[in-house]
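Here is the promised in-class demo. Please do not try to memorize the tokens; focus on the logic of going from shape to residues.
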């Protein structure tokens, strides 16, 4: 599970974990693992997301983070020991982001109602760097309603749909010309009723009194990128829309009532797609933005290629 950033992302790198990424903790990979004797130093997992028992959105990848690097020549074997099963079989593949994180996503969005199981059996499996797995892990989760949000930066609107039916179209403001919002599709990482946001934590300004300095605790925060992009209410932009034309530092602003409503509709893994910004698409590992890569690009990062899930 990715940890929350502390503020809206401004400028900086187009890569995940850039100057505006900020980690706050490391949750465990799974409860009740099954240990075995290791042939060498242990290969351990940092996290497996989604967590067991959760209901997530149609754009949610499975993300496995290893504590130690996995060598390129060991990745195909490691992938084969991370088995994905689903109640409605889908085509998908693993993709490596560096040497410690592997995400699995379906070729297209998950069908709503699908039950999913990930079995990570690393017992005796080598990482190519002298470490061997000692445990197996199992996570089960479900794909919930197909909730999507489509944001038009130039139109100052967000259209929210559930299972193909339009629920509401909301007025928004996105990033300014100096601090544009990421384009692309970002699956919701998490949400919090309040988040403390500071301009210093995202590399915008640490000088109190400067035009872009802020230190605020803001409500109804839906987290989109590790680098600090949120959909939320901002006290500095209380009535967003084309009439106000006030740009943010990269977040998407809603009115107080709309932000509270939206917060109540979305869950981890729901896709928020932003168009019309001058900024590039968010990197696929800047949170859970797997669908910002075309399928051929996704497969280029896989060691074992495309496959169909086993049937639950």
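The designed amino acids, position by position:
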């Amino acid at each position: 599970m990715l940890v929350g950033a502390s503020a809206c992302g401004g400028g900086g790198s187009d890569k995940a974990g850039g100057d505006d990424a900020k980690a706050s903790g490391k949750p465990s990979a799974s409860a009740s693992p099954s240990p075995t004797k290791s042939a060498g130093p242990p290969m351990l997992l940092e996290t497996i997301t989604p967590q067991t028992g959760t209901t997530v959105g149609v754009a949610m990848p499975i993300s496995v983070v290893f504590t130690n690097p996995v060598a390129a020549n060991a990745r195909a074997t490691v992938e084969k020991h991370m088995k994905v099963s689903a109640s409605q079989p889908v085509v998908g593949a693993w993709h490596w982001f560096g040497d410690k994180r592997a995400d699995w996503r379906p070729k297209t969005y998950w069908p709503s109602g699908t039950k999913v199981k990930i079995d990570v059996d690393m017992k005796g499996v080598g990482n190519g760097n002298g470490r061997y797995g000692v445990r197996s892990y199992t996570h089960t989760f479900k794909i919930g309603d197909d909730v999507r949000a489509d944001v038009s930066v130039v139109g100052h609107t967000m259209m929210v749909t559930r299972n193909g039916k339009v629920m509401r179209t909301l007025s928004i403001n996105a990033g300014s010309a100096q601090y544009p919002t990421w384009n692309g599709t970002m699956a919701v990482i998490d949400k919090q009723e309040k988040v403390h946001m500071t301009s210093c934590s995202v590399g915008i300004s640490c000088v109190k009194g400067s035009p872009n300095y802020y230190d605020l605790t803001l409500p109804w925060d839906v987290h989109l990128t590790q680098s600090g992009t949120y959909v939320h209410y901002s006290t500095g932009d209380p009535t967003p829309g084309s009439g106000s034309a006030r740009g943010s530092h990269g977040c998407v602003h809603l009115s107080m009532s709309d932000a509270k409503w939206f917060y109540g509709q979305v869950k981890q893994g729901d896709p928020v797609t932003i168009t019309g910004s001058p900024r590039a698409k968010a990197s696929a590992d800047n949170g859970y933005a797997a669908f910002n890569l075309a399928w051929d690009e996704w497969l280029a990062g896989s060691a074992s290629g495309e496959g169909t899930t086993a049937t639950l």
